[in-house]
Design a protein that fits this description.
48% of the residues lie in helices and 15% in strands. With 248 residues, it is α/β, with parallel strands linked by helices. The chain has one domain (8-238): 3-Layer(aba) Sandwich (Rossmann fold). It is globular. Bound molecules: NADP nicotinamide-adenine-dinucleotide phosphate.
Length: 248
């Protein structure tokens, strides 16, 4: 039997990059996956690609995680479609970089609303379902920037550090119901988000990675699946980095 047979997984930001890889990896191991992203086209294409490889395993949901009412409706819709939810992966995230001196209030709000309030919204929407589910898990995708800070990313660093505190508090609140909640802190992973960086910045980044290369979406997916597995039942409230040694 596959590791996630009979499990239902919700992956936010599943339309591209790390989230799409996570959604595909769960489907490959037998799970049903709700692929959530902002735009219909991106989550639709991701679900279609996953279904082409693993028939009838994925369904697309175009939802803005920052919107409390839309996410509450998502909570009901996924349960209506799949019957339950065992695993919630909060991966949706954005950047709006700039030095604090020049950062617009809208850039602060957009990043905090998606990266941090988005997780508040989804946990609110799914926690009752998770409490009743078998092997319930929450995995929140934070970042090494939430541990280390980064000039030009005050909004992103605050959102990702906030997500770590949120994960620990949720872990404590839901431990009595055996729902585990952990955070992953990826380092620099090759995706559209990091493609935007210029060569000079990329070289500087590589100089700070002991293993000497960017990570892959597979690296983050593998760790997510482990933390969501039965085997990880005794791990909760932790932050696990997959960063080529950047934060050691
Ligand atoms: N790449 C890295 O090096 C790195 C490192 C550390 C942490 N992370 C974190 O890992 C996560 C994924 O990063 P990535 O590089 O894969 O990003 P990406 O390629 O930019 O993809 C982001 C995904 O999130 C979705 N999304 C954004 N805002 C949303 C919202 N308000 N509601 C619903 N979905 C939303 C996007 O939807 P659409 O497709 O519809 O636009 C997209 O599917 C993020 O939380 C990021 O902060 C990334």
């Amino acid at each position: 039997m596959s590791r996630f047979e009979n499990k239902v997984v919700v992956v936010t930001g599943g339309g591209r990059g790390i989230g799409q890889e996570i959604a595909k990896a769960f489907a490959a191991e037998g799970a049903k996956v709700a692929v959530v992203s902002r735009s219909e086209s991106s989550c639709g294409a991701a679900a279609e690609a996953i279904n082409a490889e693993f028939p009838e395993s994925a369904k697309a949901y175009a939802v803005d995680v920052a919107n409390h009412d839309e996410v509450a409706a998502l909570g009901k819709q996924v349960v209506a479609d799949f019957g339950t939810v065992n695993i919630l992966v909060n991966n949706a995230g954005i950047t709006r970089d700039g030095l604090l001196m020049r950062m617009k209030e809208a850039d602060w709000d957009a990043v905090l609303d998606t990266n941090l309030k988005g997780a508040f919204n989804t946990v609110k929407a799914f926690q009752r379902t998770l409490m009743k589910a078998e092997d319930p898990r929450i995995v929140n995708i934070s970042s090494v920037i939430g541990l280390m800070g980064n000039a030009g990313q005050t909004n992103y660093a605050a959102s990702k550090a906030g997500l770590i505190g949120f994960s620990k508090a949720v872990a404590k609140e839901l431990a009595g119901r055996k729902v585990t909640c952990n955070a992953i802190a990826p380092g620099f992973i090759a995706t559209e988000m990091t493609d935007e960086l210029n060569d000079k910045v990329k070289d500087a980044i590589l100089g700070n990675i002991p293993l000497g290369e960017l990570g892959s979406t597979d690296d983050v997916a593998a760790l997510t699946l482990f933390l969501a597995s039965k085997e990880a039942r005794y791990i909760t409230g932790q932050v696990v980095a997959t960063d080529g040694g950047m934060t050691m």
